Structure formats: structure tokens, C-alpha cells
Amino acid sequence: MPSILPLLIPMFLIGPVFKEPHSAFATAASLFPPFTPILMMLRQSQPAGVPAWQPWVGLLGVIVFTGVLAYAAARVFRVGLLMQGKPPG
Question: pLDDT of 64-80, one tens digit each?
Fold first, then answer.
């Protein structure tokens, strides 16, 4: 359930974002890294589009977020191996 939640929340937000794609809520939600791929594409599909800087800021946020998550996962994995006491095999 926790792993699928970042995919479900943007699906619930599609209605309000589709209704008002240039609102502050839609902009903030589409710049939040786990929701960026879905909501930014939705906003870009609207006839008015989005300002040119927003997709780039969203992409940068997704890249940074991915790096932070990879670092955190590596730390958890390392601590898990150290607590077990055996070398990885």
C-alpha cells in the first residue's frame, strides 16, 4: 500500500487540476516530485500549456528526489547488512 500511494494520490488530483490547470494548487501539486510526471503532463496537455520554466523545475525536482531516495535506500540496506553481521553473498 505505501509503495502505490504516490501513484494513487495524483489520480485523485486529476479532477481539480484538469478543471483549473493554472491555479496555485495545480502548480504546487505538479511541482511536488512524486506527482510531477502525471500532473505536469496533464497540465501540458491543456490548450494554454504551462510556463516554460515549470517543466524544467519539475524535472530537476524529480532528479534530486530520486537521488535522495536512492541514498536513503542505500543507507537502509547498509545498516541492514551491518546488523546481520554477515558479508553480502
Answer: 999 999 999 999 988 88
